[in-house]
User: Fold these one by one.
Assistant:
Number 1:
Amino acid sequence: MTAPEPAGQTAGSGPLLTASGLSVTFNVGSAFGARIRKENFVLRAVDGIDLEIERGEALAVVGESGSGKSTLARALTGITPVAAGEMIFDGRKLAARRRGRDRRRIQMVFQDPYSSLNPRLTVGSMLSELLKVHKVVPRSEVESFSRELLNLVGLSEEALPAYPRQFSGGQRQRVAIARALALRPDLLIADEPVSALDVSVQATILNLLRDLRAELGLTLMLISHNLAVVRHLCNRVAVMYLGRIVELAPTEELFSNPQHPYTQALLAAIPTLEPGSWDEEPAITGDPPSPLNIPSGCRFRTRCPLAEQICHDQDPELRAGAASAAHRAACHFAFSAAGAAAPAGGAGQD
Amino acid sequence: MTAAFSPGGAPAGPMLQVRDLHVQIATGRGTVRAVDGVSFEVPRGEALGLVGESGSGKSMTLRSILGVLPPTASVTSGQIILDGRDLVPLKQTDLNRIRGPKMAMIFQEPMSALNPVMRVGAQIAEGPMLHQGLSRAKAAERALDLMRRVGIPHPERRMRSYPHEFSGGMRQRVMIAIALACEPEVILCDEPTTALDVTIQDQILRLLARLCRESGVSLLFVTHDLPVVAQICQQVAVMYGGRLAEYGPVQDVLHDPRHPYTLGLVRSAPDFDNVREALVPIPGSPPSLISPPDGCRFHPRCKFAEEDCQVVEPPMKPLPGGRATACLHYERTIESLEAERAGQLDPVDLQVAAERPDEAAPAAGSAP
Amino acid sequence: MSITAGAGDQFAPTGGALVELAPRPADRGVQARRATWYKNPALMAGLIITGIVLIAAIIAPLITFYNPITQNLTDALQGPSAAHWLGTDQFGRDTWTRLVYGARLDLRIAFIAVLFPFVLGTVLGAIAAYFGGWFDLVIMRVVDVVVAFPFFVLLIALVFVLGPGARSIYIAITLVGWVSYARIVRGEILVAKRQEYVLAAQSAGLSNTRIMGRHLLPNVISQAIIYGMSDIVQDILAIVTLGYLGLGIPPPAAEWGSMINGGQNFLSTHWELTTFPGLAVILVGLGLSLIGDGLADILRPGQ
């Protein structure tokens, strides 16, 4: 099979990517101005994350705006500088400024199909540029390899001389996926790959991602706010809130037995095809705090129905319960009777 | 297209009736038939969802009802009857007088719908002062009350804030307050929660539902999100290619569709509660609205299409239970559903679209 | 997990059927845009006007009959006639001939003079925007300093220092004129660099030079080009003004500015000596501005 397999020897065992203590910060405005306004000058978009991505898995990172999930994705891909922490990929530490080979192994698909492709380049030039710069294949094979890439994502070779504007949104996402695969990465990070597409087209891209995983043994990290998509595609889920992972578990375990109050609220808020019962209070009230002013202790306590004094004083760690090491939650009341809540609607009824 | 779809028929007649609406947009490439013969009703105190993907014409329908079409677009025929009065022939000044007090709109992007240099309280109070002749003090009082009703904390203080000082969810609440300010009878919503986080969306939907229940306001809710429609609307109309595909009570239409396009939509969207083996997309693209296909708009993509589908423009055929479908062969949709439930269908058969759909029609020219 | 078998918009297992989706043939939008360029009235009018002047300048020897520089005092100050279409100046030189040869000089200098600031300003603006930080700070402060001086004041001062002649004009215009391009390009790139295709290029490890040259600049250069059109007009005016002030191309070269200067003593008797060069300047300025307008219409982003 001449389809592009992930490059590099990932024969080893152990996680493909390990991130420890990862932090990404942004400076907002000027230090002086912030002091006048008595605000924080530093925005901690990602605030100390430990994460392992296993080979061949599909990990979802979910969260709402301000959770830092996109920033995390960009930090892992290497396009956003990291303020603290380290990343180990396939046993080797990733340098702050990545060089060629390291660059290739983690690639990203972006959300907006309309701005993620250079409007002035044909699909063919886009792909051949990448292939040539990284010497993925010998020059003579660049064109045939480009054709294979397109076939892999379900596009014909007529796409090669075409410009992005000639494609629909779904087709553009395919081109974007082909571009990401051109460098034969081991890890593909997809940041909301279907959010900007029509509903009926989303399915094609989701199916494509799933098939590529099976076909190429690709490891996938999916950023999404849509839990239905996540449930369909991924085997493990990390829930982020204000820059931290608050819960991490296999998909079905998370949806049937959520331990963190934020996860519970998130699941309760999902609209389903069943009629809503409007007499209940909303799953969660108020707005999330600004990432410039993260609450002390547990950052979720300002909206949490279970908040106690300990939540104000101590920042809970992401720890596993007694039952399973794979399910971890960052709540003082997780895995105890006080933290138990009704499973998310529909879960466990399959 | 004269069928009245009002289920059970509210005694005072529907709040809003759209009859055979045609909206066209003049572009350099030809005339876009954005809305091509659409009829539906919004009963009093109920919510009707208008569902479709991009290019279905749902936004244009909404805008033509409110009378805020872009300058190149116009209603070429049809009636828009609000509480018994046809809005289409009205001049702009008459329309303005009716719009404020009777109709209001909530947009998708609150930041561009709110005036960035005007305080929020003033924006809410503007309508009542203009349309209902309230004094400044009384209008301010109403603005305060509305901000409380929509759940904005510390309303006395926040009345003097500017839109950029609010979060997305709060801005949407402000929009709702503005919409409610003149005590309208119909609120038109254009994807009001699409840009919001799921927990905020939950809050806003509940708020809308509660407010409508309390004040008896009718809702016309445009969205592409099927679960959202299921949550908040009682009736749903599915649009495709500028026409209606199907209409009926929301639970019936979504769980037991009578049009292949609706069936395709339901099968292609991942449902959180019901993880299917495969998501089955609808291949192909929406039709060109400049030169749409003859006959049924969906026939080039439809696996159930027969010869008459290519020629005959299917009328809305009323079905029992207050439903209607624009498919000449809807019984094949029913068969497909039954086979699926009996577990007799392969993934390929779940597809509602044909093997090699005709890709010739470019998607350019379709109206949002 | 079943792989949905290929058909329509589906992924087909490798080795099996391919060719599901082809892009639409050259989008009607693109064709429409290519077609409209010659329907754009401003662009066409501008091209015609400028074209006529350009062609006249090129075929100058064919449409003029005298030498533009040699003096012929016996024929001085004659009004328009069959022999001298626009008359002669105080040195007996045929005005029409000098007009046409003046076009050669002025247009050539203007077109070249606009090129250097264009390149310099674009490069500096791109660097300032893309790298930000100190680059941006320093470059933009220099821009601020240059902009603080009125264009002509600075220009005249520089030419005065550098001495008359074409070379000083090029240098002076370059040193003064690059700032507008820098600002325009910087603004465009600040926006463009946030586009996801730039992020994609960065994540693919492409070098910064490549990203700037291949991915960013082609998408933003149109604004600079449009500005360049009006800049040519300004440069023509600058050259003509310098010539009028005696700081431009030294006599006896046929140049519109010095022609206007030379003729002003005879305004009451032979107004044509000053007026026709002036009209020529206006005409060329009009033509180029119209081209700029037309281009702005066509290249406007978002059809």
Number 2:
Amino acid sequence: MIELEHLSKNYGSVRAVRDLNLKISRGELFCFLGPNGAGKTTTIKMMCGLLHPSAGAIRIGGIDIREDPIAVRRITGYIPDFPFLYDRLTAAEFFEFTGDLYKVPREEVAREMDVSFERFGLVEQRHVLIKDLSHGLRQRVIYAVTLLHKPRVLFVDEPFIGLDPFSIRMIKDLLKTKAREGMTIFLTTHILALIEDMADRIGILVNGNLAAVGTFEQLAAHCSIQGGRLEDVFFSLAT
Amino acid sequence: MREFLALLKKDLRTARNLGRVVREHSSFKIGFILVFASSILLGLWTLFAAGFWFLDSLGGLGLMLVSRLFALFFLGLGVMLALSGILTSYTTFFRSDETAFLFLKPLGMGHIALYKALQSAVYSSWAFFFTIIPFIGAYAWHEKLSVFFSLVTLFFSIPLVLLCSGIGSLICLIGARWLPRGKWLLSIMVVLAVGVAIWGMRAASVSAALDEDTTLFLSRLIPGLRAASNPLWPSWWVAEGIMALARGQWARGLMLWSVLFSNVLVMGMLIEIAGQAYFYKAWQRVNYSGEIVKRRGTLLGSLDRALGFLGADTRALIVKDIRTFLRDPTQWSQGLIFFGLLGLYYLNLRNLHYHMLPSEWRNVIVFLNVFSVSAVMCSLGSRFVYPQLSLEGQGFWIIGLSPVGMRRVLASKFVLAVGGMMGTSVALMYLSTRMLLVPPRVQAVALGVAVAMSLGIAGLSTGLGALFLDLKQTNPASIVSGFGGTLNLVLSLLLICGAVFPFGFLFHLRYIERLGEPELQRGLVAASLWVVLLTLPATLIPLWLGGRSLRKREY
């Protein structure tokens, strides 16, 4: 579903991502790890089309992002670490607006809004301006809106920042369910314990290089760590 | 098409929801803003009406001038709209978080660019309408025209706004894609600035030597009139179209409107094509190109040494503020543009033959120039000095917990603000009075008022900024638009009016010989005392209140 071939990104003389090769299958929940500044967000932004790769190719669902970026956007969703929201729209208005952008039929938008707002506990906040919502509720609005057009691939950058344990549990369960339903999820986070619990495969990026990729067990074996935690694997590879 | 309409619908909903946001503010604040805005409109209306009466007094010449004046008025506004469109477009196209959000949606780049251009047009046109409403209102009242005339003006103004702002958007888009950046851009700007300064000074010295033939003088006195009457200018189509419809010449009026509107459509098409081709690359270039600059601060290192006579803590505060100012182009670039335009205008005063005007008119221009420099200081003070303490935001604890003391923090910010404002305003006033060849006494008064206004505006902006501190807000626009920001703007403007008007009026009465020399001298002493009495409290009381509030505040 996601294919990266010799992907590189340079900022002037700084090489943020170097010759990245990766394939992620349909329905896989892939977690991308790395120290701050390793190039994780740059990689996600290139996959979403926000950044132009300096070299290499990206194919999402078999479509080359350079050749048909709009087709890629139709089948992907992106939740950044600090998402943009229209503060002066209500949650319901923002939902309808996104439906129009993705040309989702109006009846389907109305039906999805009921289901989605119920699932994310937003029924009471339906007509509240987004600026008046708490951080946790804003995150829920983002998830509800991003999933509206049923993306086949979801990119999530640091989804758990500033959330309470209830919200973290809700998002974790949601992502696992969506992956089981066939959605490909590409996620970055620094909360290693959650990754252990969720990830089908883990990639570790260090200074723009993919240091290792595999299941937790494969990574542990790669680092010759037995019975350890992901934290041990991560430190072994990242330092 | 549905996506594009969705974007417009979203903006309509946002505008509708603005009512809900406004209701959250205190009715006193809203009333205050409304009263002040209405007063400005009324003031402008009175000014324009007086202008039309003055033209009436010129007889046939006045009649001839009116239609050209309309063309000049719309040309001036159109040029300003295009310039403002460049700046606004840069923010809406490249600095808005919404752009990245829209890039993630299945929208064509051309559509996003067109939408952003429309957004820029709306943002940059409020001042246009704020000026045009009293202008047209005064003309309609003077000529006893019906409400229909005002509607016709609106009918013509909207396409003009779209066209001129669209030109700005297109320049911005192409500039962001192709203009050299970094040191190259800086070098080009320096060369341009030096070129303009040399041209201005040469023009001034040449024009001073021209003879005083009255016809030549009149044609050069208002040089824009002829240029504005060129039938190829969109502003001329507007002026002629409005006049035609007001005279009941429907076919001509609609033809001119159609010419204007078809140009708007072409402009929209050009923006869409340029957007499709360049927007993404330009956005990448603005936001993600270039290396991370390692700043060694060599220049500021020497400043640090030069300020060695100050305590290390005060020095650290001052150098930190100068560093953050210089590294935030939005701050210094706006100051540079505003003061640069004024400087350019003052350099050209002799080129416009204003130095050959009778003394009473030169006096009016001198005090209008004092007002314009003070108004720019007021605008920059409200926009940048007032919110600077609030913008310390989450980092305020560093200063708050340090042993510097809040009084010194406030004093250092005040001194910096005064230094910047006074240096610039006194230099500009010196230039203006030199170019107009006014007597030393007028020059001294103009410079004195500039000094007083620098002190007063800096005191108000710094003091009220501390008094209405808002550490939770990260958006400067929200800080400025709060009650404290509005109060600061209003008080600064009142201070300017209160200080500039008495001197201007006294000298004017003297020049038209309604006041004798002894009375003028007594009046000047009284006006000087009045300005001192006005400036001292305006400077000290806000600083004292702000300092007290900072000391009592819990963080």
Number 3:
Amino acid sequence: MRPDSTESQASAANVVFAEREIPIFRVGDVVRVAERSPVGHYRVPTYLRGKTGVVEAVIEPPGVDNEDESFGRNAGIKLHYYRVSFPMTRLWENYKDSPSDALHIEVFETGLLKEKP
Amino acid sequence: MNNEAAAHDGDHSHSHAPVQQEEHPTYYEIMEIAVRELLVDKKLLGPGEIRRQIEVLDSRTPALGAKVVARAWVDPAFKARLLENGRKSCEEFGISFYDDTQLIVLENTEKIHNVIVCTLCSCYPRVLLGLPPDWYKLKPYRARTVSEPRAVLAEFGTVIPDDVEVRVSDSTAMVRYLVLPRRPPGTEALTEDELAALVTRDAMIGVITVNGPDEKEAP
């Protein structure tokens, strides 16, 4: 897990990273899970559609998109997965237990949108 | 050939039920056979490769995960590395990862209780624990663990105090999770092997805690 990609950039000044190599979200970013249509079996569970959470970690190394891969459409493009956390009370209206309970999940970069703070 | 085997081969006087297939294969069993035979026919996979992968899977059991947990309990430096990069430290420990998955080890503490689930299918740390239990793959566990985790845990006999945060990790893509349970009190004198013997599969999924050697399991 790499908490902040800019540090690794700075440590080798003469190396230029390709755009896709650099995670677009950072730890602490507020993100929204993309609402994709039609509703179907994506690698992000339906119960998280449109929910906002906080990036907890950038998962290294980057990986291929599982959804593309399952259709044989892997062109070798790798992006990051992010571990994102959501308070249970934000996911379930009637969540009666402790408000500190939370759900954590890893989501591929293309499944997340940046939310304005 | 020993006498017993010889007797079995030659004089078949004792009776036993014949070993045979009683039921017709299901739709999915037929599909699996058809796909497997096609893959072999088209030379995309050899029967030896399929057998080898089955042997790889058969060699993975919860005893492996238990060894990792016991090592983390007795070796703080290993534990720190394990929490930092689960896959790398398991590989250092001699446990190979035969696929592209990463491993995040989730530490249970006085204030945090972790439990793992895969709502989409049955993602599971097979590298360390082998095949998942059937209930892990069934819809009630998958749906309820993300929406009412405390109720699910209570059904396993695990009642989490209100001031302890329940963290549910939903494993959906390339990351697998392993719960590092809390070391039970009164185990200071135990060896690493004795500690490993206390660690069960369900404790590493996070649905129960680890009992000390003298504790009885919750009824």
Number 4:
Amino acid sequence: MNLIPIEADVLVVGGGTAGCVAAIKAKEALPNGVVILLEKANVKRSGAIALGMDGVNNAVLPGHATPEQYVKEITMANDGIVNQEAILAYAQQSHAMVQELESWGVKFQKTPSGDYDVKKVHHKGSYVLPMPEGYDMKKILTREIRRTCVKTENRIMATRVLLDNGRAAGIAGINVRTGEFVVIRAKAVILSCGAAGRLGLPASGYLMGTYENPANAGDGFAMAYHAGAELSNIECFQINPLIKDYNGPACAYVSGPYGGYTVNALGNRFMLSDYWSGQMMLEFYKELTGPNGPVYLKMNHLAPETVTEIEQILHTTERPSRGRFHAGRGRSYGSDWVEMAVSEIGLCSGHSNSGVRVNARAETSVPGLYAAGDMASVPHGYMLGAFTYGKIAALNAAEYIRQQSTPELDDAAISAERTRVLAPLARPDGLPPHQLEYKLRRHVNDYLQPPKSAHRLERGLNYFQYAHEELAQLGAHDPHDLMRAIECHVICDCAEMAARASLFRTESRWGLYHLRLDYPEQNDAEWFVHSILRKGPDGDMELFKRPVEPYVVPLDNDELQSYHQLRIAPSPQPATATV
Amino acid sequence: MSSSNVSPPVSGKAIVAGRLKFADETEAATATKMAPNRQAARVFDVPVVVDETRCITGCHVCVESCPVDCLAIDPAKGKSHMKYDDCWYCLACEVDCPTNAITVKIPLLIR
């Protein structure tokens, strides 16, 4: 095969939140080295923050919170199953990252005296920092990428991590515009491919109506798995409270500090904290499906100028089409409550606790392979966690390659991958990718959506195994179709991981995220562990337990339980508001 | 049985109008598995609407902006259009278009 690989020192796969900072920081650390940033879309408008972000959800800023407080809060929100050292590494570098972003031109909300205008949304501490002008985040990052001379390759989708004797050696992939097969050799690979956001099917039935940017199909989860990396706590799904049908955040983090809050159909508040955790989602789900459902976000009691301020943020950043969605239905925050629903399931450490297992140096269990952002296992990272871990991954990768020679590429593996990924183009009459994707994701909803039970999960698993027969018949008319066909394989891999991990943990934990009807109790005696999933020696998925790393910030038992006390006792008098 | 058979084998029973042509359901299942895939076209109402009088020939800013790569230049007209039903209604194309030629509707299933 006369394929000439592109050569890199550090290769960053995915130019979203974590990937942009990883590429910038790797290039700064290796001014004479080659840093390549691969992006499936175009870096200027890609990833979870393609249209900016309305705020930082987890800033640990002096005078407002300490790193230790933050570690405690995230430990509680995850029922104790965390690598505290990895969370602490983020918390300690969070302030420096905010300062660096400011030096790049990112604007955070300040008080009249010039302090960061930090708000309380979490159950215990104050970490939310609004960014009313957060719409041009990707523009700022793209400018920094150009300034540092990172080599950017847009519209390239990585499909497999290449290995040299168990060490990361580069990637194989395709150009989604030309269908060209691409090989990049690198001394270190940083995966920052975002969440597995196209796992469940939104209730609207619209394939691309997902909470996550639908380009984030779970490519990173699948690539890390096939490279032999360990993934942790995959059964801890991402499920979010979203605007019904629109399927974007409303968002309690923006409106909460202004006085907006979640109510049931009677207009009563029922949760102490709107911060997204599994326990909060369980209360939300109970109310939504109970006699007092549906659930709403209430802002119509606020002063008109406050509502205007909220609208200015929500209708310009993150998901700016929220405004025309509401207006199209003749509704507004000032006059109506916003009907909410639960999202489809996904895998995303940014909001929950599932991902490719990394330590406080962003190293995966495969040498030379790093992971950061929504796909890496540091929980509740959100945007600032992704930025910070992008930087941590880059600095450690730059250090690692100093002792590494150029890896050898395995021609047989490359040839096999080329055959695999290009196969659908030879079958223009094959199964259409969007149709098979719908079927896969409909089965995810049918069998994996919590509350879970072994019988249902096994039915799902049965289909995801059978689906390989259908995946082998996928066809593609053009490179765009080919991208969607390969994503079907990714979605099926993620669905199988989600089913197997959910079957493995025979207890309930993380509220709604892993609610097992057949094992309704949390069982710390047997399950105060990480569940680890990886590719076994026979090529099948294997699961096992790993002990939770020793705590660096101890918690007493009462503290660990505090996220289980989010329910407010019902009020005797219904509020007098109109829907 | 060879997978290259376009027409699946059917048992020797006479085919009678109004009756199934297979001897039993196992034979039917095998035959339907081996039958080749065929496709039908379907028309969608798509969210991204391009005003061709404003869209600049030669510009492809929106095509580059789209995070799901659902836009393309129509080679016959030289204008942008929504080629694939993949829109995330994120507004990147609408915001980035230099001539305000694009209007993004909320997709029908959602609005």
